[in-house]
Write a structure and sequence with these properties.
Elements lengths: L2 E5 H10 L1 E5 L2 E4 L1 E6 L9 H6 L5 E4 L3 H14 L5 E6 L3 H4 L2 H10 L3 E7 L33 E4 L6 H12 L7 E7 L6 E5 L6 E4 L7 H11 L5 E5 L1 H6 L2 H11 L3 E3 L14 E4 L6 H9 L2 E5 L5 H4 L12 E5 L2 H4 L5 E4 L2 H14 L7 H20 L8 H12 L5 E4 L4 H8 L8 E3 L8 H12 L5 E6 H6 L3 H8 L4 E6 L4 H9 L28 H8 L2 E5 L2 H13 L4 E6 L24 H15 L5
Parallel strand pairs: 2-11, 4-5, 4-6, 6-7, 7-9, 8-9, 12-13, 12-15, 13-14, 15-16, 16-17, 18-19, 18-20, 20-21, 21-23, 22-23
Antiparallel strand pairs: 1-10, 2-3
Helix pairs in contact: 3-5, 3-17, 9-13, 10-14, 14-15, 15-16, 15-22
């Protein structure tokens, strides 16, 4: 057996260079490159290995969470066909990736995390930034990644890399159960050499086989659908990753079945399809939520049925209405006592279309769909065009951007605050994959970093981060990465003076306004309820070298967006919008924990209302 002597870090890089995937006969290299920030825990190990290679592009990040979000967004926009690895030092550098690891795992997006770790030899312990557990010296800070990783391993001997790396690829390429893969790399082991078999570095092609639906399972679904006349299909993120959009459209067109969208599924199918009723659930449209109440069967395709999609299981409260769960992951297919069809979304929809054609199935929902769409389109137009006397409303700004200012093929990126609700309800996606929303974890700070990842994945499309002021303040460090790389992103910053989304939730449950806006401390009350703190976000962007704009009316908005399109550097448009000018709920409910006892009678009343709604929800 021929061998090659390499350090563990050099072997890891060489292995990653030779990983490929094949989907439907199309083969491409899987690991695009590496994001990293160096410290004493990785600079002399994997840092040296990366400096010595010409086959892996390295990007210097500026915040560990931020660069990991960029890697996640890249993989998501690429429909999980390409990924980035992310390397950090030990201690705080590694811990900064924890939030991103959870974001990847919740959203089922592959990302390879390579945090440095303490010395496997333990000889210099405790090293700088080491977290010690006196009861178990094998534990380091990196053990915290176990709960948020789909696969976790620590390489304490250089030869362990071989089985660990292959298992990492198994999870990273899984269509069903992927997420964050964390390989903890002790800083001494990174630099230790081993005689690796040359075969370990051969080109490996990982074939992503579509899971074929079982005939018996198809037959069970057909039995459920046979006599149903008002089916509603829910299009989740699995439709995107399976490439099942045409299969869903064919199914809908053939049988006149309306379809709603989750946040992950929105943007796969275009907004103006006559059977597209828009977002489903808490941040969904009036049309989708009303039709859900009238439906006699729910077909959930590629969705994990989170509480925002099901309105905390209140949207489908009639337990006599069956749910069909179509998913590659059996855990998701079985949710809410569904009739499970564990299969690739595209293959399942194609097979169902064929079988239902054979029995001449037809739905009888079209007239109601048209009426609900008409009413909802009128509401969207109202929200898009209504001017407020004292300033810009968030919905008015979105209307201008969507209908008049953004290119049809633009990609918008969002994650948190009130914007995801407005965008899922109101945004008209005119080109496939033009809507990129991280809403599984709804991670504040994803938007700017994510827009960089999306732009790297889609260099020929304009990319716009749709971000609130609260989320921007939390994490915008990857603007500097974009500037270093010469990659243009556009940051649309909606400044409404704080966490207005949560303030809205607070008020809806009878709680007095408390600590959700950016206000000065009031000496008279002792609380943060003084005047608003004025923040010049355009100045922050300009400090990075961005082209920036300040907007307070529609004319300024138009001028700013049109000029931003002409720029070759990244841009930031600081848009002052009125607090509380987001959309409200439309025939939906979201369960939150409301105090059972309170000195505030409005809170106790909100608790009683919550209990009444709980009685109407499905229990499993």
């Amino acid at each position: 057996m021929k061998t090659i002597r390499l350090t563990m870090a050099q072997a890891l890089v060489k292995f990653l260079e030779n990983q490929y995937i094949s989907i439907d006969g199309v083969e491409n290299r899987f690991v695009k490159g590496v994001f990293g920030i160096f410290g004493h825990g990785n600079v002399t190990g994997i840092g040296e290995a990366l400096e010595s290679t010409n086959n892996m592009r390295f990007h210097q990040g500026n915040n560990e969470q931020g660069m990991a979000h960029t890697a996640i967004a890249y993989a998501k926009q690429k429909r999980r066909k390409e990924i980035y690895a992310v390397t950090t030092s030990i201690g705080p550098g590694a811990m900064n990736m924890m939030t991103a690891a959870a974001t990847a795992t919740v959203n089922r997006i592959p990302v390879l995390l390579l945090p440095g770790d303490i010395f496997a030899s333990r000889q210099p312990d405790p090293v700088l930034q080491q977290v010690e557990d006196p009861s178990d010296l094998t534990i380091s800070a990196n053990d915290a990644f176990r709960s948020v990783s789909r696969y976790w391993d620590r390489i304490t001997r250089p030869e362990q890399l071989m089985t660990a790396a292959i298992n990492a690829m198994r999870v990273l390429t899984s269509p069903a159960d992927t997420g964050a893969v964390t390989l903890c790399l002790p800083q001494d082991v990174q630099s230790e050499a081993y005689d690796y078999p040359e075969s370990f570095f051969k080109k490996r092609v990982h074939y992503i086989d579509r899971i074929t639906p079982e005939i018996a399972a198809i037959e069970r679904v057909i039995q459920v659908l046979r006599d149903k006349k008002k089916p509603l299909l829910i299009c989740g993120g699995g439709v995107r990753y399976s490439g099942a959009e045409q299969a869903v459209v064919d199914f809908a067109d053939t049988f006149k079945v309306p379809f709603a969208e989750t946040q992950a599924g929105k943007g796969v199918l275009l907004w103006d399809h006559p059977l597209n009723v828009g977002g489903m659930g808490v941040t969904g449209t009036q049309a989708a939520n009303r039709l859900a109440k009238k439906a006699d069967v729910i077909i959930a395709v590629g969705t994990r049925l989170g509480d925002f999609t099901t309105a905390s299981k209140w949207a489908f409260k009639d337990e006599e209405v069956p749910i069909i769960g179509i998913n590659v992951l059996d855990y998701d297919a079985w949710k809410m006592d569904a009739v499970p069809l564990v299969a690739d979304a595209r293959m399942a929809m194609e097979q169902l279309t064929s079988e239902l054609k054979a029995i001449e199935y037809t739905a009888d929902f079209e007239d109601e769909v048209k009426e609900e769409q008409r009413l909802w389109n009128e509401e969207v137009e109202r929200l898009y065009t209504t001017d407020w006397d004292n300033g810009l409303s968030q919905t008015r700004v979105l209307g201008e951007l969507n209908d008049h200012l953004f290119e049809d093929d633009a990609v918008i990126v969002g994650a948190s605050g009130s914007l995801p609700g407005c965008l899922q309800r109101l945004w008209k996606t005119k080109e496939t994959d033009g809507y990129h929303m991280e809403y599984g974890f709804s991670c504040m700070g994803y938007e700017v970093s994510g827009s960089l990842g999306v732009k790297m994945a889609e260099p020929n499309r304009e990319v716009y981060a749709m971000v609130g002021d609260g989320s921007f303040v939390m994490l915008h460090s990857e603007i500097l990465t974009a500037m270093k790389e010469g990659i243009k992103i556009n940051v649309m910053l909606f400044d409404n003076s704080g966490y207005q989304c949560i303030l809205n939730l607070q008020r809806s449950q009878g709680i007095h306004d408390f600590a959700n806006e950016f206000r000065y401390r009031n000496e008279a009350t002792g609380r943060l309820d003084g005047k608003y703190v004025p923040v010049d976000f355009a100045a922050i962007g300009a400090g990075y070298g961005m082209k920036t704009y300040r907007v307070s009316d529609l004319d300024e908005l138009k001028e700013a967006v049109e000029d931003a399109k002409k720029q070759t550097v990244s841009t930031l448009i600081d848009i002052k919008v009125l607090p509380g000018s987001m959309t409200g709920g439309y025939d939906s409910w979201w369960r939150v924990g409301v105090p059972e006892v309170s000195e505030n009678k409005d809170v106790e009343e909100a608790h009683r209302e919550m209990q009444e709604n709980v009685k109407q929800t499905r229990k499993y």
